[in-house]
Every structure is written in structure tokens, then in C-alpha cells.
Q: What sequence folds into this?
């Protein structure tokens, strides 16, 4: 298991293996079933999508992840002005779709998209429970992983990527 | 950087940093315009009504499947104005590489210096070692008649000896080279770190090498050593370009070798296209930004979001199967046993009580 978020000398890395993602996905699925929400995404504070369950939307997941993380970071400044460290829950209401963000383990944001098929109260209640479970899993993964072991991407990856870039902007 | 074996994705964060109006958003707009639609998502700009970046601009760039991993770059810009430092710092969180876009105008020298210092301060605040973060400098607006000589810019701004490029972002000159150089450094670091780590993920990157898009050109680091060496003493882009005008396309197509110049030996690009001075074109982006404030998503083809989403979805499918067959499956079988035992126990107790009353 390795939901690790380490600084390995040269930088800041987050990595997630398939078996670890399965644990997170199971919690998200259960949450969607009981809450009636449409989609649940786990987005880390750097703006990367960790995993996602539920209805597939046409929006680009990279973009929404970046915006969610950015928006959350901005409100952190507001919280600071109020003397809070950060807000643990954010809610944006739309005419049809709404979105709620719940901070998990100070690391990732449980991002829930829902419509009028359910209620804010239900989503908030079950999101709180799900966040607790997700936090336990992430903490457990952190404790069992002190380094990003098992993340070999293979020799020649860099050269392949560079060639691809060259080809892209020829 | 995120290595997500579950989604079979590698994502790196690259930030365009620099003083206000130096051309950061223009870099992204040009990249967005030139990137094939299957390799890009929408360009999202959160701008003020005055057409200045308020929060950040964002563009996902997808290189596609490389050795079984969908490889992406997330390109951000920051607002350049001094008073938006909180936002700049926020965008820098988890950054893998920075393209510092400096303005070549003589009256912008102090702003360039201050902005680079601000970048280094913000990185330090995140606990990052400055020397460990991949940074390159792009001297933009080289087509200005009064552009400061690159040697002077290097002396005053680039004291750490970062790799540098000359650019005219409005016509694309130097834009692609800058990105390729930085992305190459970031990817190289990824491979170096990953190479020292044992025990590959069983469900992870085991795909066969994707050779479908390997560039046919050789890309040896020494492909253009003379140009690299001449950097610090080179004439200005204007002068050089005037004597050897080349299409910008050729410039962008230079070997990837230049993509990973060493910090100790700054590489250079003498932008051929800067041979064509374009007064007045330096600060206006091609196509222009949306005039109104708020979030503006650039005109990406409708298929772009889908193409960016579908592969990811497809890659997540195996993961979901994994989900069903692992721990949760065992949990669901045990969850049937317990209620059954409870029901049997209750029935037995009820039977005993019934007998007792009889």
C-alpha cells in the first residue's frame, strides 16, 4: 500500500497503487449508494485527481480537479483571516447541480456532485461519515508506507516522453 | 507529481511564473492553439474584467500512453501583480517545474528581479530546495526594439544560471522549446527517482512501450552545441535573427536534446522568428482573452474534453474490477453471514420462549 505524499529530496510526490485505490473506491461507492449523490471525486490539494466514482460527466476531470484545489486553497486564506486554520466543508449551490467539498485527513478533498434527487443534509451527513472512513484508510496507508516503494516506471520512459513532446510540437 | 497506478496516470505540474504582463498567459494560449486537440483539454482562464489573470490559467496537456502510463502535464500560470502573492503561492503548491517568463523591456528589469526572488521565497516557504526544482527562464518579447541584451539579462536576473530561452510568445517563438526543455527535465527526474525504487506495482505500469509516436529525428544533446555555448556572449535576438532569419517552426523543431540543458551550462535559443520585429504585438495575445471577467474556457473543440476524459475512464475500469474482487468482496460475503446467524439465534430464542410459556 502506498498512498504516499513524500518529499524525496528533489520534490513533492504523490503516488497511489491499484490495491490502495480499491479501498478508497469502495468507500466512495458506498457513499454514493446511501447519499444519492451523482459523483464523488477525491482530489488532492495539489490539484490532481486521485480517484473517482459515480456518474461520468463530460467535463475534463483534470480541470475540475485543478479548480477544486485552487478554490479550496483560496478559501483557506479567508479562513485564516477569520482565525481558522481552514474550512473543513465547502458547499456551492447551483440551479441544477451542486457541489460539496469535504476535507479528508488534511490531504485530499472529497468532492461530491449532486442534484435535486437528494438533499444537502443527506449528502453532508454521509459525506462526513465517508470522509472519516477515507481518512482512516489514508492514515493507514501513510503509516505502512514511508517511501514510494513500488513506483518504477521503467527504463526509457523519459526518452519516450521527450520524443513524444518533440513530435507534438514539431 | 502524481504517479497514479490505479488510473495508470502520471501527472506533472508546471507553472508559468513571472511579473505582470510578461506573457505567461500568452504562452499558454499559443500552446493551446498549437496543440493537437486530442492532446489538450480546455484552457481555463480566471481573469479580471481588465483581462488580467486573477487566479490562474490552466491547461491540461496529455502526452498519451507512454509505457502503459497516460502521461499528463498540468500547465498553470499565476497572476503577476505583486499583491497577488497568496494566489501565486497557492498555485506553486506541489509544483514540479517552473518556466519563469521574464519581460525583456528595459523598464521591467526590477520587476523581473523581484518576481524571481518572490518565486524563490515562495518555494522556500513550501520547504522546497530551490536548486532541486526545475526552473528555466524565458526571456520574452525579444522582438521589442529596445529589448535588453540577453547577456545583461542573464547577469542581472539569472544569477543562479538557470537554462534560458529567448522568446516572442505572441508568434510562438521559443514557447515550445521552453516547455520541451522544462518538461524534459521534470520527466528525467521522475525516471531517475523511479529507477532507484524497487518492487513494481503488480497492477501498474506493465504496458509495453508505445513506439507509435517516437520522433524519427535524432535528439542527441550535442546536436547544437555551438548555439548552446554562444548563449552568454551571443548578440541579441534581434541582431542574430536579422542575419539568419528562419521560420519559427524550424526553431521549435530543434532536437529534444536541448530539452534538457544542464543548469551549469545554460543552453540558448536564438529565436529565428524574432528576426521579424512586431512592434505592438508583444502584449496582445493571439486571439485575445475574453474581455469579461470570470472564468473563461477557451474555444477547445467539443471533442477535446471527451477525448481527455474517455481514456482515463477506460483506464479506471480495470481498477473497478479490482475493487470488486479484493477486500470489499470478502467483506460483502461476511456481511451475509452475520445477519443470518443473528436471525437464527433470534428464532431459536423465540422458540424457546414459546415452549416456556406453553
A:
Amino acid at each position: 500500500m502506498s498512498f504516499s505524499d513524500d518529499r524525496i529530496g528533489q520534490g513533492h510526490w504523490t503516488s497511489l497503487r491499484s490495491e490502495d485505490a480499491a479501498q478508497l473506491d469502495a468507500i466512495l461507492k458506498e457513499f454514493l449508494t446511501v447519499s444519492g449523490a451523482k459523483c464523488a471525486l477525491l482530489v488532492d490539494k495539489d490539484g490532481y485527481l486521485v480517484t473517482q466514482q459515480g456518474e461520468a460527466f463530460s467535463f475534463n476531470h483534470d480541470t475540475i480537479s485543478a479548480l477544486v484545489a485552487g478554490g479550496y486553497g483560496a478559501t483557506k486564506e479567508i479562513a485564516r483571516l477569520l482565525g481558522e486554520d481552514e474550512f473543513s466543508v465547502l458547499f456551492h449551490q447551483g440551479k441544477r447541480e451542486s457541489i460539496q467539498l469535504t476535507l479528508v485527513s488534511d490531504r485530499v478533498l472529497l468532492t461530491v456532485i449532486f442534484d435535486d434527487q437528494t438533499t444537502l443534509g443527506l449528502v453532508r451527513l454521509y459525506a462526513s461519515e465517508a470522509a472519516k472512513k477515507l481518512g482512516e484508510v489514508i492514515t493507514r496507508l501513510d503509516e505502512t508506507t514511508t517511501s514510494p516503494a513500488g513506483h518504477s516506471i521503467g527504463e526509457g520512459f523519459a526518452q519516450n516522453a521527450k520524443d513524444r513532446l518533440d513530435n507534438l510540437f514539431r | 507529481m502524481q504517479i497514479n497506478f490505479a488510473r495508470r496516470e502520471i501527472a506533472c505540474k508546471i507553472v508559468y511564473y513571472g511579473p505582470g504582463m510578461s506573457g505567461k498567459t500568452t504562452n499558454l494560449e499559443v500552446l493551446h492553439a498549437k496543440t493537437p486537440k486530442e492532446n489538450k483539454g480546455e484552457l481555463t482562464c480566471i481573469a479580471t474584467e481588465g483581462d488580467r489573470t486573477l487566479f490562474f490559467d490552466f491547461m491540461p496537456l496529455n502526452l498519451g500512453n507512454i509505457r502503459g502510463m497516460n502521461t499528463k502535464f498540468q500547465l498553470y500560470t499565476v497572476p503577476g501583480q505583486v499583491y497577488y502573492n497568496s494566489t501565486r503561492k497557492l498555485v506553486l503548491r506541489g509544483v514540479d517545474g517552473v518556466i519563469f517568463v521574464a519581460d525583456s523591456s528595459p523598464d521591467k528589469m526590477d520587476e523581473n528581479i523581484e518576481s524571481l526572488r518572490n518565486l524563490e521565497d515562495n518555494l522556500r516557504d513550501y520547504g522546497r530546495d530551490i536548486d532541486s526544482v526545475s526552473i528555466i527562464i524565458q526571456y520574452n518579447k525579444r522582438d521589442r526594439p529596445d529589448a535588453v541584451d540577453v547577456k545583461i539579462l542573464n547577469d542581472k536576473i539569472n544569477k543562479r544560471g538557470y537554462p534560458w530561452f529567448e522568446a516572442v510568445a505572441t508568434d510562438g517563438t521559443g514557447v515550445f522549446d521552453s516547455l520541451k526543455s522544462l518538461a524534459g527535465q521534470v520527466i528525467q527526474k521522475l525516471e531517475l527517482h523511479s529507477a532507484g525504487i524497487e518492487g513494481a506495482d503488480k497492477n501498474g505500469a506493465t504496458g509495453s512501450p508505445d513506439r507509435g509516436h517516437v520522433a524519427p529525428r535524432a535528439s542527441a544533446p550535442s546536436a547544437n552545441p555551438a548555439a548552446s555555448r554562444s548563449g552568454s556572449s551571443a548578440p541579441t535576438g534581434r541582431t542574430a535573427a536579422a542575419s539568419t532569419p528562419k521560420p519559427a517552426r524550424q526553431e521549435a523543431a530543434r532536437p529534444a536534446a536541448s530539452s534538457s540543458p544542464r543548469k551549469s551550462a545554460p543552453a540558448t535559443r536564438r529565436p529565428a522568428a524574432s528576426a521579424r520585429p512586431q512592434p505592438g504585438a508583444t502584449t496582445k495575445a493571439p486571439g485575445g482573452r475574453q474581455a469579461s471577467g470570470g472564468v473563461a474556457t477557451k474555444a477547445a473543440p467539443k471533442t477535446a474534453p471527451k477525448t481527455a476524459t474517455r481514456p482515463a475512464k477506460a483506464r479506471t475500469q480495470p481498477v473497478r474490477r479490482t475493487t470488486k474482487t479484493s477486500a470489499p468482496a470478502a467483506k460483502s460475503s461476511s456481511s451475509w453471514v452475520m445477519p443470518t446467524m443473528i436471525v437464527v439465534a433470534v428464532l431459536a430464542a423465540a422458540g424457546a420462549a414459546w415452549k416456556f410459556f406453553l
